[in-house]
Amino acid sequence: MLIPSQAPKNMQQQDFEAPKRIKRADQIVESVKRWVVVNGKQPGDRLPNERELMEQFECSKGTVREALKSLEVQGLVSIKTGPNGGAVLERVPYEKASQLLRNFLHFEQPTGPEIYALRTLVEPEIAALAAPRLQEEDFARLESLVACCETPARNFDERMQQRIAELEFHVVLAECCDNAMLAFIGRFLNDMIRDLVIFKKAQLPEQQEFSCANLNYHKQLLEALRARDAERARQLMREHMQSAEHFNRELEGQLQKHFLA
Amino acid sequence: MLIPSQAPKNMQQQDFEAPKRIKRADQIVESVKRWVVVNGKQPGDRLPNERELMEQFECSKGTVREALKSLEVQGLVSIKTGPNGGAVLERVPYEKASQLLRNFLHFEQPTGPEIYALRTLVEPEIAALAAPRLQEEDFARLESLVACCETPARNFDERMQQRIAELEFHVVLAECCDNAMLAFIGRFLNDMIRDLVIFKKAQLPEQQEFSCANLNYHKQLLEALRARDAERARQLMREHMQSAEHFNRELEGQLQKHFLA
DNA sequence: CTATAGTATTTATACTAATAAATAGAATTA
DNA sequence: TAATTCTATTTATTAGTATAAATACTATAG
Question: What DSSP letter does each residue of B208-242 carry, written as one string?
Fold first, then answer.
């Protein structure tokens, strides 16, 4: 035991380096990542198959498979069987990134107010960025989503459908804005709210007022966006978010009462 | 081949369901995740060892290992060898989540302006949330970071050190604010900027003016935070960010000229 | 000539068995 | 009692074999 891996008891001197053993599979993952960036590999490009990787890295099948699994979990490759199968490079899908970030937040579940606080910051900017970039097909989607909320819901299911459509409105805007990070955060927050709506607040009495306010804001937003008026879109979205935040606070209050009773 | 997995040529009707095969290892991962949430397992709790998992899921060692690798990559468990080794539940460390999100952004590298645009939104809120929560030790850290930037840098290394310290100031605030998502975004943006500073803009002429402005803002911020004046902190941070955004734009301009020459 | 069914190949997927490495804790020794 | 060595436990890695899935190619029927 020449180089102890943890803090030794009777040695005063510092650890020379981080001596922690790096697993073979992780070394391979790092090598592959380097290979990707150095050779400028793009989505769709193929990795060598398992046999070749075994030879390349002089390791066994199991180790290669662990490395590939790691890359797959990270969303960097997808793996198929059959001729022309194997691992191919992918751009990480949103769903993957979203799910991994949710793991991070698992033990500190963000509350409704926390989510809305962030949303109030982010959504107005998304609206402003989307304004000059929306295409005709985007407008069509937005309009159909608005139309979906026009008629009053007649039952629980329809109400849910409409709430989803409301949120989808924001996803469309996020997808159109050309700031990838902003878009990601926008979509992520919408996902979080969707979960809140569906799993926590589903059984509460309908909030006619809330739905109505949302619908109005969305209509006005659509108008501003059609006019390519980024500043007005931003301002409308800001008000929309403040309104939503307010309604959410009210809802949380009701929820609390409900809980105590 | 009864249920084709891809779009069939001569069938008009929709796919009934997603018939995609779910790998054994991924099934195990899902089972473990369910087990964790259903039984309210907490960080520090141990998973069954490999042998038990093999029995539990009636599968081979290799498959269990792939499942554990997946959980490890996601940052949900850490695995040790030896007695009392095995997989123990972890709260996903920030570094893990950060790295996974960077994978997502790999093919659409956010630009400086994009990052600063988000920062301008987020940092003022972080400052306001941190104001009432900072402890004496946090103030101590902030002050030592400010002190680090007081004396003018005499060489390249010192200049880098100071830039890092400047960014670290924001990380301290992010860590103290009690909105986990906001904190994550703040830290993440700081990491992105650190990379920009270190790898892209390192060799550019010093920006005396910029450093000086930052130092001043940080000093004023510290004052406002000590006074627990959230509103003033928010406003100062807003100005600070606008100033930084402005300097960054100038820098990008210089970089462009440099590139053309 | 076209569409369908069959088949052969490539590739991942899964399992078994055995050895190596790491480490916590017990036993041993000075 | 304090350092050291031993030992049991557990993961890490390897090798080899067999199975299953996906696809390209070929043959066949209409």
Answer: HHHHHHHHHHHHHHHHHHHTT-HHHHHHHHHHHHH
